[in-house]
Amino acid sequence: MPAELVEKTDRYGEMLAAALEAAEIAVPAGTPAHDGAVECREMAVSYLEDGEHFRENDDPVNALASFSYGYGWLDCGVRLGLFAVPDDTDLFTT
Q: Quick one: DSSP state of residue 57?
């Protein structure tokens, strides 16, 4: 297994975990937007868990794909205004 793949997989897993910690739902509860934010977050968490499962089973390709998809869900939510993130973070493309 190429070292670059392992390094990239680890980096993306850490990035997704940090992004989940940084992103807070920014829309009022009880609104369709809030429901959408909750779903985006749930998807990101599911992809993080999937990625960890794949990594534990020596499948870095699928782990990296899972981490990337999870991050994409969160990043999209940030761009749509569903999540608030700290001003000093470079985790998202705001």
A: T
Q: Quote the CATH superfamily of domain 3-84.
A: AF1782-like (1.20.1270.90)
Q: Are 25 and 80 in contact (CB under 8 A)?
A: no
Alpha helices in the chain (DSSP H): 3-22, 32-56, 60-79
| Residues 6+ positions from 62 with CB-CB distance below 8 Å | 50, 51, 54
Residue extents of the structural domains in the chain: 3-84
Q: For the whole model, what pTM was predicted?
A: 0.90
Q: Which two tokens stand for residue 88?
A: 């000093």
Cβ burial of 88 (10 Å; 0-12, 13-18, 19+) is: exposed
Give the Cα separation of 52 and 63 in Å (integer): 7
Residue 80, burial from CB neighbour count under 10 angstroms (0-12, 13-18, 19+): middle
- pLDDT tens digits for range 18-58: 999 999 999 999 999 999 999 999 999 999 999 999 999 99
